[in-house]
Amino acid sequence: MNITDRITAARATLEKAGQGHVFKHIDSLDDSGRRILLEQVESIDWPEVARLVKSHVLNKPVFELPGDVKPAPWYPYTPPANLKNKYAQAGQLGEQLVREGKVAAFTVAGGQGTRLGWDAPKGTFPATPVRGQTLFGCMAEYLLKTREKFGVNLPWYVMTSPVNHVPTLEFFESQNYFGLGNETVKLFPQAMMPAIDMKTGKALLESPSSLALSPNGHGGSLKALWTSGAIADMKKRGIEQISYTQVDNPIVRVIDPLFIGLHALDRAQMSSKMLPKREPLEKLGNFCLVDGKMTVIEYSDLPDELAHERLPDGSLRFLAGSIALHVIRVDFVERLNTSSDGFALPFHRAEKKVACLDPATGQPIKPDKPNAVKLETFVFDALPFCDASIVYETSRSEEFAPIKNADAPGNTGVLDCPATSKQLQVNRAAKWLEANGVKVPRKPDGTVDAVIEIPHTTATEPGDLATVKLPGSIDPGVKIVI
Ligand code: UTP
Question: Which numeric CATH code is attached to 61-404?
């Protein structure tokens, strides 16, 4: 089809969806501008946008708590006596799957990182306390250590977005793929959705030749893994399990044999790690069984009285919080994408400030309060599609030091920011050193009186330090890399 016919067809689709204004300026654009806008428009499912405008923009979807909601069971971090054998078996199975090269690492890094405000892909943010190693670097070093420990080169798939794909690729090239080899790291972009004017339900334009687009949420990974050819590539390499992580946690266990083994032993399709919530309303999704199916209910959707319910021993009844770590079977992603009745994750509404052309004046604006609805899908909404799914508890101090927000001046009160993450990294390093007999200086209140960093190439768990030449003690106030 020539460009004129394509524009005619796209115009008809837009008009049918109530979005004809998107092509208002197309005739005055130069050839390149016309092509950019046309390609954007052609990449979007406009009938779906029209449905979502009604259900999620002009109306707010109302969450209805299903009748049968129970807390999901989970495997505890430390196995109780009756599960010791199972954990030992799971650990062995997980290690075997890793050694046999049946596991791939997968990081979702297509988000915009608006809260952090870093003017580059979030994975390029310097995260560690002494070297300033980047988030991608921390994960790459984890995989280098995995390679050394298990004698296997596991592939690493990284989902980007059309916005950050090229800078991410350039970054990996500039770092020489951290020594992993460019055939090991596979980058592919996710799909985008238009931001919609909150008041009118019209798609916003960023410029006359571009929609205001944003990535379609981490749930988009389940489609992008398929459409990018990543699943086909995994099958060719004999990969069976995908270890799914987010880009924003420098101490995440990129590959965790015990978790993979528990999931595989129970023949689960998609499994999750949980943290016990610190308080009833902590902003983590809640692992529940809804009509017997594993489901995450968002913190904002779980009624307060359920969130506050306690068991006779005083612990929260809905204790298991989601931190977006999963193991997913390759054939589960394939099944979702090839099922005859189609597969669609539900969309969620997020109210955001989106820079755009003012729909009234056509002038560029940077709003200071939310003006748009972004439509995103979440990966955990695939859990109810599983026949079997397990939840495994992890440890906050060992595995959770997220970087979501920017540091505040004076570092007061902001959580999940670079400063809090660095402190958590230091605390973990100190604990690992002490477990290996090193004297670590501590202040009277017990906090570590030094800045200590243990790169993942040195250790991904305390036991790895047994073969490392360690100092007998660390001097107070020093900065040190082990
Ligand atoms: P967040 O929900 O924290 O969003 O993403 P974000 O985009 O990084 O940051 P804000 O909300 O704009 O401040 C959690 C993980 O999911 C990925 C992110 O890259 C991060 O690893 N993600 C999020 C995607 O890959 N695609 C998306 O569309 C959204």
Answer: 3.90.550.10
Contact 115 CB / ligand 1 (< 6 Å): yes
b vs e for 323-343, b when ≥16 Cβ sit within 10 Å of the residue's Cβ? Answer: bbbbbbbbebbbebeeeeeee
Residue 245, SS3 per DSSP: strand
Q: 216: closest CA among 44, 55, 11, 404?
A: 44
Give, in order, the Cα–Cα distances in Å from 468 to each of 68, 261, 399, 454, 463: 52, 28, 22, 11, 10
Asked whether 159 lines ligand 1 (CB < 6 A), one says yes
139 Cβ inside 6 Å of ligand 1: no
For the residues of 400-416, what is the DSSP string, one character each?
-----SPPPGGG-S--S
Looking at residue 302, the DSSP 8-state letter turns out to be S
Phi–psi pair at 127, nearest 5 degrees: -110, -25
The reported pTM is: 0.96
Beta carbon of 114 within 6 Å of any ligand 1 atom: yes
Q: Go through the chain and tell me how many residues it has.
A: 482
pLDDT for 184 beyond 70: yes
pLDDT per residue over 74-87, tens digit each?
A: 999 999 999 999 99
Helix (H, G, I), strand (E, B) or coil at 52: helix
Domain ranges across the chain: 1-42, 61-404, 407-482
Looking at the chain, the whole-number percentage of residues with pLDDT higher than 90 is 94
Strand partners, 241: 103, 329
Task: Verify whether ligand 1 is closer than 6 Å to residue 217 (CB atom).
Answer: yes
Question: 438-449, pLDDT tens digit by residue?
Answer: 999 999 999 999
Q: Which residues of 144-160 are buried (b: 16+ CB within 10 A; e: fewer)?
A: bbbbebbeeebbbbbbb
Atom of ligand 1 nearest to the CA of 217: 28
For the segment 236-271, what is each residue's pLDDT rounded down to a tens digit? 999 999 999 999 999 999 999 999 999 999 999 999
CB-based burial label for 445 (10 Å; 0-12, 13-18, 19+): exposed
pLDDT at 478: 98
